[in-house]
Structures are given as C-alpha cells and as structure tokens.
C-alpha cells in the first residue's frame, strides 16, 4: 500500500472512531478545525447549534485558487459530521479481505466520515503536488441525518460557489442521486374523553380507538411508484383502567413529486378527520416540510455538476450510475438555495445498520476521484 493510500485509510479509521451522533458533533468539529489548520484553512463555525438544539454548528472554510485556475469559479465540497445511532464507542475492524467494519454493535460511520476523510486526503494531495485548482469551499454540516437540519439552517449568503458536490450516496462506484424527495413529517393529536374503563366506559371517547380506525384505512408503504407513507410511532393512554383521552401519532411522507407529497398529506388528514368526527373526538394535525424534492436531468449540460462528475469518472475509466433516492441529503438544501449540487458516490454499504462497511480499495479510488474533481480543467 502506498503512503498516501495508507494515510487516507488511517484517516478514515481515526475519524470513524470519533463519537458524533446527530446533535452531538462537537468532537468531530474540533478534530476538523485542527486538521484543516494544518492545511492552512481556517474552518469557521456558524450559529446553527442554537437554532437546532445541538452542541455544534456547521463548519465552513475557503481555500484560494492556485495557478491558472486561481480566478476560476469556485466549487464546494460538502460532507456531514453526524452519524446515526448507535454510533458511540465504536470499535473499527480492518478485515483481511479489505473490508472495514465495526464490531457490529454500532454503525461504522462510513456515512459520512468516509466523505470527510476523502475530502481531506484529496485536498492534502492537491497541496503536496502543488496542483493548480480553482477556489475551493469546504462545508461540514451537522444533523444531516435529521432532515438535513444543519444545512437548512446555514446562512447561504456566505457561499460563493455555484457547483457543489456531497459524497453521500451509497451504492456502486460512480452512483449519484438523480432524485431526492420532498419529505413531510406529521403529528396527529387526538383528544377523546376519559372515563372509568370498568364502571362507565360508554361515557368515554377512546382516542386510541379513533387512531386505530384511521390507521386501518390508510395504505402505508408505497402509495404509488414514487411516494411512500409511514406511520412510525403511536402513544396513548396512561393506565389500563381508564378510557384513553389522548393519542399521538407520528409519521412521514416522501415523494419524488412535490405535489403528490401534499396530496398524500391531505389524504391522511381527511381520514383522521372523518374518524375523529364520527367518534366525537377533537383533532389537531401538525405537519412540516423537511426537505424539498429535486430531479437531475440525465442529459447534463456542459459545465454542470453532473457533467463535471461524468468527466472526472471518465478519467478513472468509470461511468455514472443514476439512482433515485428517497432518503434526502444536504444537496436538497443546497439546490433549494439555488446551487447546482450533486450527491455523489461515497464508498459505504448497508448504511444505518450495524452491518455497515466500506473497503480499502474503494476509499483509495474515491479520494483520487475527489482530487480529480478539485483540479480537472473544465475548459478542456
């Protein structure tokens, strides 16, 4: 293994071992501030922590361009600092077959520490090799795993780039997200009427029964070929000898068509309203659009993020692979704020599970891909 190859692998493992579940990314941020300082880049932290109730804000840094590309249009590289749970006290195993895993009691955290490690390694090599490059912006976000809260709270007036790459798409080498959804989360509050379950149950209005009647009518899973509906939690009642007065239901809708997300939400509201009215219960529904859909035209225009990604992959003898995603990412926020962003391949598999893994060879090739994106002559 070459020295630089070993360095990026060691970097990833080092990063993966740092605790940083959503809203608790402080140690990751401190690590990045120190490492980028060694590269001559000052990472500045914003005020997002106070907005979302976390212990850390987003980090932003700017690198001046060099050589013949010094005055070129800047490009931005984005990765998120948080991991899903269970993500603390990880043990990382470098296996004989070249895979890297946790001990299977936690996630590995390749999502998205492999993205961070790749960005650092790519820029380090750009500096070491004294390569010409355009101005580069670095953005490391918090709470991406929670509806992209960090990037949603970012002050976009600070961003100079039009083009942005976020290596946060799992799958085969060369994959990118061609579509990411509108996501609406909702809470349904049902208020019935309490009464003694043994003496006078007929005087009560069972809020849980109202919820059950509504849920039994609602088709969950795939509502159509581009929309999903899920009711994830239900809470109600306090004791077994009382008709439950309150019930709280939480769910979400994701759709590759913005209007269909809201039509599905209207359907959910109508069903709960009908059941509540029939039972004489009170109803309150809170809903919030968390992320907004985007779609990428496969016929990439010259100079676009997708065009650049295709050309960089071509330098490695690879091709792009379009993938519809229903997860959402920081790219949803970047595109919503007018940027040409692309969620690109990162070597991560079985993400959000304790079986998550990456591979040594893919991390090495991935870091090289990011370096190509940083220095490739887009005027060729």
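Q: What amino acid sequence fits the structure above?
A:
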């Amino acid at each position: 293994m070459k020295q630089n190859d070993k360095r990026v692998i060691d970097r990833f493992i080092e990063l993966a071992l740092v605790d940083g579940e959503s809203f608790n990314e402080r140690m990751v941020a401190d690590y990045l501030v120190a490492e980028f300082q060694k590269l001559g880049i000052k990472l500045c932290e914003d005020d997002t922590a106070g907005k979302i109730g976390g212990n850390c804000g987003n980090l932003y840094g700017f690198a001046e361009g060099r050589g013949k590309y010094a005055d070129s249009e800047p490009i931005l590289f984005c990765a998120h600092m948080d991991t899903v749970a269970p993500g603390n006290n990880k043990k990382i195993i470098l296996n004989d077959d070249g895979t890297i895993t946790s001990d299977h009691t936690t996630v590995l955290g390749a999502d998205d520490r492999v993205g961070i490690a790749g960005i650092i390694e790519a820029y380090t090599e750009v500096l070491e090799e004294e390569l010409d490059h355009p101005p580069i912006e670095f953005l490391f976000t918090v709470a991406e795993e929670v509806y992209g809260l960090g990037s949603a709270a970012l002050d976009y007036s600070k961003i100079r780039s039009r083009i942005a790459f976020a290596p946060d798409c799992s799958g085969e080498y060369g994959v990118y997200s061609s579509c990411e959804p509108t996501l609406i989360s909702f809470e349904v509050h049902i208020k019935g009427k309490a009464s003694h379950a043994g003496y006078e149950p007929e005087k009560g209005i069972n809020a849980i029964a109202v919820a059950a009647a509504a849920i039994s009518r609602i088709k969950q899973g795939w509502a159509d070929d581009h929309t999903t509906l899920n009711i994830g939690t239900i809470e109600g009642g306090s004791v077994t000898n009382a008709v439950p007065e309150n019930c709280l239901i939480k769910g979400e809708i994701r759709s590759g068509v913005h209007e269909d997300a809201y039509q599905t939400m209207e359907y959910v509201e109508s069903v709960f309203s009908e059941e509540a009215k029939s039972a004489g219960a009170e109803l309150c529904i809170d809903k919030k659009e968390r992320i907004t859909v985007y779609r990428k035209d496969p016929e990439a225009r010259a100079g676009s993020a997708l065009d650049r990604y295709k050309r960089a992959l071509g330098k490695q003898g690879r091709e792009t692979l379009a993938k519809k995603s229903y997860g959402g990412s920081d790219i949803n926020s970047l595109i919503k704020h007018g940027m040409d962003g692309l969620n690109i391949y990162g070597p991560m598999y079985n993400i959000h599970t304790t079986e998550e893994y990456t591979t040594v060879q893919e991390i090495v090739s991935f870091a090289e891909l990011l370096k190509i994106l940083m220095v490739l002559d887009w005027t060729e």
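Q: And what stands out in the fold?
A: The mean pLDDT is 96.
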